[in-house]
Amino acid sequence: YLPENVGFYDDMTGFENLLYTARLNRIHEPEARSRIGSLLETVGLADAAHRRVREYSRGMRQRLGLADVLVKKPRMIILDEPTLGIDPKGVQEVLQLIARLAREERVTVLLSSHLLHQVQQICHRVGIFVGGRLLAQGGVDELARQLSGSAPLVVEVAVEGDPGRAEKVLSSLESVLEVERLEKEVPAQYLLHCSRDVRAELARRLVEAGLAPVHLRLRAYGLDDIYRIYFEGGGGDGRAVDGDHRGQRAARR
Predict the structure, then answer these.
(1) pTM
(2) pLDDT digits (tens, 9 = 90+) for 132-164
(3) Measured between alpha carbons, how far is 86 from 73 in angstroms, rounded to an integer?
(4) Largest CA distance in the chain
(5) What share of the chain is helix, strand, coil (3-state, %, to 5)?
(6) Nearest to 114 by CA among 241, 230, 244
(7) Cα-Cα-Cα-Cα dihedral of 121, 124, 128, 129, to 10°?
(8) Contact 93, 59 (CB under 8 A)
(9) Residue 246 pLDDT more than 50?
């Protein structure tokens, strides 16, 4: 388990902290030293191995924390907000490292986070908690498909031609619940909130009206959209929890 705030002895080096963890777990010292050297290389801290941890940035401490949990050769790692308080470059480094460790070390990674765009970047399976209850689980695409029957479809439309005539055509379909014009876009672009997929019928009507559809596409649900829909429907405080694994995958709080 890697908590949100990683605790290390600041007056010890990164190597010494990991060796202390290995001794607590009764790992023979020659094996521990070899494993620690390899892990520090893996997490990008080989050059800082013998610096005192008080000199580490938060991102470096998070990477040391990953090495600290891996020194025990776990089958599962639970990470709580592993990128909190890290600069954007460090966030990407930590996320890439987590994904690589899951792939190369063949370990289950359970990631608990409110930063859903980060979850979506690296995780294969997601569980959405609202009010303490697991409301949905699966891949992001699977969750989006589950929502398709309970939330309006959003169709993105770009049209060349008279905007007034375009909006009249867009609003004429019974299945279009709302037409939203995106300002300052050329050609004119709209978001249509629809009860069904109207793209084929819409393309025909636009052409018949002498207008040129540039593109018609369904807007895909991102994890932030999916969570918001479940949260608004479920009420109460919510939290997204994600599991990432090469074989068996799980989602837990």
Answers:
(1) 0.62
(2) 888 888 887 777 766 655 556 788 899 998 888
(3) 26
(4) 79
(5) 40, 25, 35
(6) 241
(7) -100
(8) yes
(9) no
